[in-house]
Amino acid sequence: MSEEVHVHIRLWGRVQGVGFRVFVVHNARRFGIKGFVRNLSDGSLEIVAEGPKSAIEVFIDVVKRGPPLAIVRQVEMRFSSKLEGYKSFDILW
């Protein structure tokens, strides 16, 4: 079994108003990842994700590309071994 990891991701660019949050939720659930996604007031997108390291790595590659109308210009990530214990993956408002 793969080590469980926690990652905090911030994305900048055209990441709001292009279906990015729904895209992230779909892929998180597809890979068995728990956490949340939300738009921030500065125009960026925040993702907090927990799951097996191998699934998180694939998930990161997917969200870096984003949905078809998105343009990701900058990505910032912070990893941690401290898990928050999320039970699902949701959009926060």
Order of helices and strands: EHEEHEE
Q: Output mean pLDDT.
A: 96
The number of distinct helices, counting runs of at least 4 residues, comes to 2
Report the CATH architecture.
2-Layer Sandwich
Rg, rounded, reads 12 Å
Q: Sum up the overall morphology in one term.
A: globular
Number of domains: 1
Describe the main β-sheet briefly: 5 strands, mixed
Q: Uncertain segments of ≥5 residues (pLDDT<50)?
A: none
Structural class designation:
alpha+beta
Going across the biggest sheet, name each strand in turn. 4-1-3-2-5
CATH class call = Alpha Beta
Tell me roughly what share of residues is in helical segments. 25-40%
- Indicate the proportion of strand residues: 35-45%
**Count of beta strands:** 5
How far is the N terminus from the C terminus? 33 Å
What is the CATH topology classification name? Alpha-Beta Plaits
